[in-house]
Amino acid sequence: MDIFITGYGVISAIGKNVEENFSSLTQERTAIKQGLKSYTSKFKVGEIGLSNDALKAEFDLKTDGSRTALLGMVAAKEAFKNHSHFDALRTGLISGTSVGGMDISEVEYRKQMAGEEPNFKQYFHHPSGTTSEQIAAELGITGFVNTISTACSSAANAIMMGARLIRSGQLDRVVVGGTDSLTQFTIFGFRSLMIFDDEWCKPFDNSRKGLNLGEGAGYIVLESQKSIKTTGKIALAKLSGWSNASDAYHQTASSPDGDGAILSMKQALKQAGLEPHEINYVNAHGTATPNNDLSESKAFINVFNGKVPPFSSTKSYTGHTLAASGGIESVFAILSIQNNILFPNLNHTTPIEETGLIPIKNIQKNTEVTHVLSNSFGFGGNNSTLIFSKI
Amino acid sequence: MYYIHKIVSITHQDSFIQKDVNDSLVEIAEDTVLISPDYKKYVLPASLRRLSPILRMAVAAAKECQEAITIPFEAISVGTALGCLTDTEKFLNVINTVEGDILSPTAFIQSTHNTIAGLISLELKNHSYNMTHTQNNLSLEMALIDSMLCCDEGKDFVLLGVADEAIDFLNKLKSIVLPENSIVTSGTTFFVLSKKKSKSEIGFLACRSIIKAKEIEMEIDLFLQELKIESKEIDRIYTNQNSLDFPKEMVVNYEAYSGLYFTSNAFGVHMANDWLIKEAKKYALIVNSGCNNSLGLILLKNDKAQN
Amino acid sequence: MSELKEQLKSQIIEQLNLEDLTPADIKNDSFLFGDEGLGLDSIDALEFIVLLDSFYGIKIEDPAAAREIFHSVDSMAAFIESKK
After folding, report:
1. Amino acid C42: pLDDT
2. Chain A residues in contact with C50 (beta carbon < 8 A)
3. What does the alpha-carbon distance between residue A107 and residue A110 come to, in Å, rounded to a whole number?
4. Subunits close to A (at least 3 CB pairs below 8 A)
5. Which residues 94-153 in chain B show a CB within 8 A of chain A?
6. A192: closest CA of chain C, how far (Å)
7. How far from each other are the two terminal CA atoms of chain C, in whole angstroms?
8. Does B209 sit within 8 Å of A144, measured CB to CB?
9. Where are the domains of chain C?
C-alpha cells in the first residue's frame, strides 16, 4: 500500500513556514547566531525570534500550551491547512518531542528553588503526551493521539508509526512529525556533555567540534489512497521506506562503525524496494559532533558500497532541533524532490580524514531528485531512516 | 491474538516472579514502599551504580523476560507516562545550584524518556526496533498497539513494557494536577508477546485508545460490539474507576493495589492474566480511565477456557 | 602527594557513584578506564572534568585530551600538583 504525503508544515530558525524555510535553504542562509535569551546568550543557537505571545497572535492559536506545544501547533496547522474533518476518515496525530513542557516546568522549578511561590498548576503542561494532545486539540483531531520520545529520532519514528498504522488499516490519515523548543534544561544538558561548538557547526568537516542547538517543529500529513479519494488532496510525494534499529553500543556515543545506522539504512532501502544507487540525495543526521559524523560517514560507505550519493546536513542552517529534526528534515526532503534541488552543507572546508567524503558544497538546481533518504539518530543509539520518493 | 509468554512486574506489591500475583496482594497504604529484587543479579556494578529506580526495575524485568525465550527480541516497545523523574529532578537541581559552566552530565543523559528502552537494548545487546511511547495514562495502550503492529509485521517475539517512578515532588501536585487522596507509587510490568501460542494460551485480543471518551459504559459497548462479543461474556473487569455500571463482584480496582502511577493498568493486566489462568475464565477487560476523559480499553482472552 | 591520592579516591567514589567501592579498593596505578580497570567510560570522563573543577578549580576544555590525565589516580594527582 502506498503512503502519500498531502501536507507539510515547518517552523524553524530559518523560517516561519515552508516557503520561508525553502527560501533560506536555497539562498544558503543560516539562522544560527548568538542566542538572545539569558541562558542561550553564551552559545550559537538556531532560535526562533518569536515569543510565545507573538506565536499565539501571529498564528491565531486557540489552545494554550508550552512553547514546544505552540511551535508544534504552528507547523501542524500549516501541514493540515485545507484539510477538513470527515466522519468516515479515521484521522490521528503522532508527535515526537524530547522536551515536552519543560520550558514551563523549569521556570516554576527555579522559582521554588529561589524560595518563591511556584504555580503548581503550570506543571499540567509538563508531560510530553500533553503537548501532543494540545496540538491535536488545535487541529480538531479527537481520534488517535500518540507521542514518541526517542530523543533526536522522535519525529522520524512518529512518521514511521503513522505510516504503519495506515498500512495496517487502523488509520486513514495521520499528522506526524515532531517539535522541541529551546530550554535551559537542554542547553545546560548539552553543555554538560561538552559537545557544543562555540562557533558555527561544521557538519562532516575534519575540524568539527560539536553541534549548535536549535528549536522548531515539522509535520507532514500521511494518507492512504482510499483517504485521498475522500479528501481529494494532491500528493506531494510518497513515503516509500522506513526503519528503526538500535546501536546497543553506549548510552550516548554512536558505535564507531555505525552499526545501528547501517542497519536502519539497509532495512529502509529493502523495504522501499530500492537499490542503494537509486538514492539521489541523503539528508544526513550530521550533527557535527566528532562522534556522529564519523560514525554516519562510515555507515554511508558501507551501505552505498563506497559510492555515496550527494549528501548534506541541513543542521548547519537550523541548528539541531532534537526531536523535531526528523520532521523538519522530512519537509526538506520533500522540497528537494518537488523542486529537483540539492541543499548544500554549510561551513565545510576539509573532508574527514578517515573517510574523505565531501558533502554538497553549493546548491544544485535542476538535478533530478526521485528518491531521498533522511537519517535521524537519537541518544542511546536509536537510529531511524526514512525514504521519500517522487510520485 | 497476541499471546503473553511471560509477565514480570516490580511494584509496591510482592509481585516479582510469583506464580499468581493475586495471592499476596495487600491494599496500598500511605507508608507503602517499592518491593525490589536484588538488582545486582541483573546489572553489573559498573552500570548499576548510575541507575535510578525506574531504570533498575525496568532492566531487571526485561532481563527476566529475555530469559523466558531462547532467541533475541525482534522489537522492544516501551511506554512511560512521566519518564525518568529522578534524573530529571536531579538535573534541574544541578542547573539551579551549580555556579559556572561545568555541570555533571549523568543525570541529564538519563533524564530522557528513551533511556529505559535504550538501556534495555544495551543490556540485552539487542539491535532491533526500539520505541518509547509517552501518552500520559495511555502509554501502555500505545506501546501495546505498536507491539501488535510489530507482531503483524512478522516479528516473532516482542518485548512490551511500561515503567513509571514516583518522586517526593509528585506529592506537592496532589489536588492540583494529581487526584487529592492518591498514593503515588512506582511500578513496572514487562511482557513477552508473540503470535505463537503460549503455554497459558492467554493473550491480548484487542486494544483501543480514546482521547475524548463519551460515557465509559457506552465506549465499552462499542468496543465489544466491534469484536462481536457480548458484555455478559466478560468474566471480570479490572479498572481504576470505582463507579462503573457493572455488578460489583465482577469489578476489581487495580489501583487499590498498584497505587497511582499512570501506567499501572499494566499491573491490572498482570492481575487479570493470573486470574484467568487460575479460574479458567475466558475474558477480562481492563478499563483505564484518565481524569481528562481519556480511556484505554484492553481485552484479554483465554483460548483454553470453555464458554 | 599520598594524602591527595587518598582524597582523590574518595572524591572519585562520590562523583561517580561507585557505591560498592572503598578507597582501599582503588590502586594508585590501576587503569581507571576500560574493562581491565574500574570499567569507567566516556560519561565518567566528563564527570572527572566536573570533579577537577568543583574540588580543585581546574578547568578542562577538551574532553578528548583529558583521557591522558584520567589514566590512573597517579596521573590525576600528578596533573593536579602541576596546576598548583
Report:
1. 87
2. 192
3. 5
4. B, C
5. 94-97, 101-105, 108-115, 117-119, 121-122, 124-136, 138-139, 142, 145-146, 149, 152-153
6. 8
7. 12
8. yes
9. 2-82
Active site residues of A: 152, 285, 320
* Fold adopted by B2-194: Peroxisomal Thiolase; Chain A, domain 1 (3.40.47)
Instruction: Choose the closest CB to A252 out of C43, C49, C50.
Output: C43
State whether residue A72 is helix, strand or coil. Answer: helix
Q: What is the pLDDT of residues A92-136, one digit of tens each?
A: 999 999 999 999 999 999 999 999 988 999 999 999 999 999 999
Distance from C-alpha of C38 to C-alpha of C16, rounded to nearest angstrom: 11
Instruction: Specify whether the CB–CB gap between B163 and B78 falls below 8 A.
Output: yes
Task: Kindly list the structural domains of chain A, giving each domain's residue range(s) and its CATH number in brackets, ordered by start.
Answer: 1-391 (3.40.47.10)
pLDDT digits (tens, 9 = 90+) for B240-273: 998 899 999 999 999 999 999 999 999 999 999 9
**How far from B137 is each of A149, A294, B16, B140, C35, CA to CA, in Å?**
15, 40, 23, 8, 41
Q: Which is nearest to A153 in space by CA: A389, A324, A268, A332?
A: A324
Q: How far apart are CA A197 and CA A312, in angstroms?
A: 18
* CATH number listed for the domain at residues B202-302: 3.40.47.10
Query: Which residue from A134, A130, A222, A230 is spatially nearest to A171, judged by alpha carbons?
Result: A222
- Looking at the DSSP bridge assignments, the partners of residue A11 are A217
3-state secondary structure of C11: helix
Helix segments in B154-233, DSSP class H: 216-226
The interface predicted TM-score of the complex, written ipTM, equals 0.97
Please tell me which residue, C61 or A307, carries the higher pLDDT value: A307
C-alpha distance from residue A371 to each of A26, A225, A265, A339, A388 (Å):
19, 20, 13, 13, 6
What homologous superfamily does CATH list for C2-82?
Answer: ACP-like (1.10.1200.10)
Of B245, B246, B271, nearest to B256 by C-alpha is: B271
Residue A281 pairs in a beta bridge with A372
Q: Which of A97, A193, A104 is nearest to A151 (CA)?
A: A97
Short-list A335, A334, A383, A330, CA closest to A216: A330
Question: E strand or H helix at A281, and its extent?
Answer: strand A281-283
Residue ranges covered by each domain of chain B: 2-194, 202-302
